Amino acid sequence: MELDTKIISEMEKMIDQLSGVISNKIIQDDQGEIAEIHILADKSRNPKQISRDVQSALTAKFNISIDYKVISVAEIESDGIHKSFGGIKLKSLSYDLEGINGKARVILEKDGISYEGEYGGIHSGNFLKMAFINATIDALNKYTGKENVFMVEDYKVIGLAERRVLVVAIAFINAKHRDLYIGNAILNDETGAECVNGVLDAVNGILDV
């Protein structure tokens, strides 16, 4: 059965909500059918359990039966990716390319409630960090509401102790205050997660606004 891009996107969003899943990507064949489902997961659950959850969820919500053989689960250590700041932690993140455009999506979680943020624009190597930083801010503003707003003032990658460190400056604005907060994160391979953690590090002390 051929599936349009909207349905595929809805499936990916649903899979992102499953326990243990960090991000996922569904690949279609030439007939538009699901050929592969690639999942990045933490080590909180067995890959076979995650695979079964994916099968059950797709059957229950979309009435689609998926062979377990098309599902691949890659596990990574969750330290640094699901780091918690003030009770808020990164649940999942993804970056999608469509032509020359890229879009970052970040889902934060607190007390079992998810807050989703997005940021899109023309894709480039430099844009990736900007996109994840701003998508995190968008998610935070969903959490804090219209009366308390975060804004990205600046960010920079610096060299320190032979490491690359992301430094972010985040403004916090409400009717009484406009304050600036600085956060940082060491850049390794998980650039998206580290951008999220840099922002959360900056606003850690005022997340319970």
Notable features of this structure?
3-stranded mixed sheet, 209 residues, 4-stranded antiparallel sheet, 29% helix, single chain, alpha+beta, elongated
What order do the helices and strands come in, and which of them pair?
Blueprint: H1 5-16, E1 21-28, E2 34-41, H2 47-62, E3 71-75, E4 84-85, E5 88-98, E6 101-110, E7 113-122, H3 125-144, E8 149-160, E9 163-173, E10 178-186, H4 191-203
Parallel strand pairs: 2-3
Antiparallel strand pairs: 1-2, 4-5, 5-6, 6-7, 8-9, 9-10
Helix pairs in contact: 3-4
Explain the overall architecture.
With 209 residues, the protein is an alpha+beta fold. The protein is 29% helix and 41% strand. The protein is built from 4 helices and 10 strands, in the order αββαβββββαβββα. It is elongated and about 55 Å long. The mean pLDDT is 85.
Overview in brief:
With 209 residues, the protein is α+β, with helices and mostly antiparallel strands.
- Helicity level, as a percent range? 25-40%
Report strand %. Answer: 35-45%
Helix count from the secondary structure assignment? 4
Low-pLDDT ranges: none
Q: From the alpha-carbon coordinates, what is the Rg to the nearest angstrom?
A: 18 Å
Spatially, the strands of the biggest sheet line up as 4-5-6-7
H/E series: HEEHEEEEEHEEEH
Strand-pairing-aware structural class: alpha+beta
Mean pLDDT: 85
The backbone outline, from C-alpha atoms, is: elongated
Largest sheet: 4 strands, antiparallel
